[in-house]
Specification:
Layout lengths: L3 H13 L4 H8 L3 H8 L7 H11 L3 H15 L1
Helix pairs in contact: 1-5, 2-3
Length: 76
């Protein structure tokens, strides 16, 4: 598992936005299984995908990177 805090944030925001994984996958130009892997902490989104997640899920960049940094710090 990579980043559960980030994964949970993305999943919660997607669900609260009434967005299906397939729709988010189209937005990020990935397949639905990639969204599932991101939401379950098995894959980290790249920088472009992080930006698109912020825009389409209404997540502040500060909040997103706080979650991303927290897990990175624990891995080091």
């Amino acid at each position: 598992m990579l980043n559960l805090a980030l994964a949970n944030l993305i999943k919660e925001k997607r669900i609260s936005s009434n967005m299906k994984q397939a729709a988010l996958a189209l937005t990020l130009n990935v397949n639905q299984s990639a969204i599932s892997r991101i939401e379950n902490g098995f894959q980290e989104p790249n920088l472009e995908q992080l930006y698109l997640l912020c825009v389409h899920l209404d997540i502040s960049i500060d909040k997103l990177f706080k979650e991303f940094k927290t897990t990175k710090s624990h891995k080091d």
